[in-house]
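Worked example 3. Consider a protein that binds adenosine-5'-triphosphate.
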Amino acid sequence: MTESKENLVLETRGVHRTLGEGIDKVHVLRGIDLRLERGKTYSIVGPSGCGKSTLLYLLGLLDRPDAGEIWLAGQRVDHAAEAERTRIRGRRIGFVFQFHFLLSEFSAAENLTLPMLKHLPIDRETALERARELLGLVGLGDKTARKGNQLSGGERQRVAVARALANDPDLILADEPTGNLDYQNSKALFDQLQALAHELNRTILVVTHNLDLARACDHCFHMRDGLFE
Ligand SMILES: Nc1ncnc2c1ncn2[C@@H]1O[C@H](COP(=O)(O)OP(=O)(O)OP(=O)(O)O)[C@@H](O)[C@H]1O
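Given these inputs, the predicted complex is written out as structure tokens:
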């Protein structure tokens, strides 16, 4: 893969992570080197238990490595103070999980404006306008006022994708984003993620067991026993 330093959004160097105590102790990640470029889509596949979610947690600044370095957009983030990590997480990383975690008592648009108002210097009107625009991008322009429980599973996942884009993050991390959807909805959601990454020049890293979807990314990493093959 050709890459330049300016295009590098995320880099890890020799990342290790051990979890558990005593006889349950597992050396989960054994020296992960990863380089992700702006505007590209990446997937990680590998057998259950090989360390995919553990890595995603570290990259999402929800956990810290025992050794190694993590750099996001040129800034070393694994060593940063917790308050700074929270700020970076809210501002520069978007998450899409298997279960959408939308706030069902709020409308689709409000589910997007809440993180914007928390992390961006933006007023309510502008946030709402941006929310409607993003929901339009994922094909939900006519359902912005619907509450979470008035949307289908596929629609909720699309709101989750729009929400992940809300703060214009450098990196979007997705853990089995299509895991609870049927084939048609999975494919549609995945195609949308791909198109958005390319159109908006955003980087997406997806962990999935769906090999068809994984192979559709610009690059697919194969993980085994805490290392890339
Ligand atoms: N808190 C913990 N304490 C001890 N071991 C843990 C802990 N969390 C995870 N593990 C172990 O770490 C290993 C990696 O787990 P991880 O969830 O990263 O795997 P995964 O590749 O995402 O698996 P899956 O595809 O099933 O989601 C597994 O062997 C798991 O049992």
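Take a moment to read the result before moving on. Strands lie at 8-19, 26-37, 41-45, 67-72, 75-76, 93-97, 171-175, 203-207, 219-224, 227-228. The chain has a mean pLDDT of 91.
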